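User: Sequence for Acetylornithine aminotransferase below. Tokens please.
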Amino acid sequence: MSSSVTRQTFDEVMVPTYSPTDIIPVRGQGSRWWDREDREYIDFSGGIAVNVLGHAHPAMIKALTEQAQKLWHLSNIMTNEPALKLAQRLTELTFADKVFFSNSGAEANEAAFKLARRWGNTNFGPHKSTIISFQNAFHGRTLFTVCVGGQPKYTQGFEPLPGGIRHLPFNDVAALEAAMNDTVCAVVMEPIQGEGGVLPATPAFAQAARALCDKHQALLVFDEVQTGNGHTGTLYAYEQLGVTPDVMTTAKGLGGGFPIGAMLTTSEIAKALPFGTHGSTFGGNPLACAVAGAVLDEITRPEIAANIAARSQQLQDGLRALGQRYGVFGAPRGQGLLLGAPVSDAWVGRAREISAAALKQGLWVLVAGPDTLRFAPALNLTEQDVAEGLERLDRALATLVADGKASAAA
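Assistant: Structure tokens for Acetylornithine aminotransferase:
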């Protein structure tokens, strides 16, 4: 086995489900990372809304190394102190009474959807099994979660698909009202559709969903895998909508880069998953829970909330100015440090070209579909990080526009 690996090695040994860039990062610090040529990049992506404390945060390193010298894994036959402490903290900070730990957001959502189905069956009968979700939603890549998600491209070729799932237009109260009936066991929604273009739910829509679920005895499930853990300015986005869900999922930023997910619910609803009905070998792993506990301690500090507000305003102001200057994208939408900039009509379908140009200038930004640039940086990024990142994006846009004019002239 060769000790030297390159981007070509990926094509040789990895299943081709991804197409990573040619760059191979090797180390990071805060909101910056460096590749094998020691070139520096500013990170506005946060590992797709995961690295809420940036790279190599000392509190996370301390928690991981201390736990690594104690217990790594036990299985769910036994519980452990880090898992219990993390579950206690999550119930103290949210509406929930009970927690189920998983390894990812997809697994957390899988647990939530299974809970909803079994809750409906147990309390009302097998007819109460319909799950309503929304077009352009994303809930994970297991077979069940891609089917609940509202993007057909993720289910093509995997038929036959699980049934009993309906997809409605997002933020359409009338459509939801018309679809609700006594067969619905759950309405599943993201407070902000991340993969779908960073599209926020309106408070009126979220409140209508809550009222309709109450009327038809259905569960309201909030997928906060991407919106949670401080990204929107509060620990979880539901706090800003005036709505409390029955079930909530969280992952991504919860571990700050260490894989962990969780499903949260009330004591009464949790009764639908008694002993033996669901499980996870690694869920509640001591290492993951120790790190997540340290992350929660950090992101709930008042200084972090203040920084999210300040850096969000700085980033939005900068993006508006660049959008007006180059005409490539419009005003940003979203909340806190989960923002999307929709491309202009002339750039429809070309968001990846913009992100690729930014990467060449040493700035990592995301896309949310073909028409939206997505920003989900660390919650503790600095004023200097934002200023320098915007300067690099400025250079990228200037190059793109100049190249476009040159091509048109030719």
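The radius of gyration is 22 Å.
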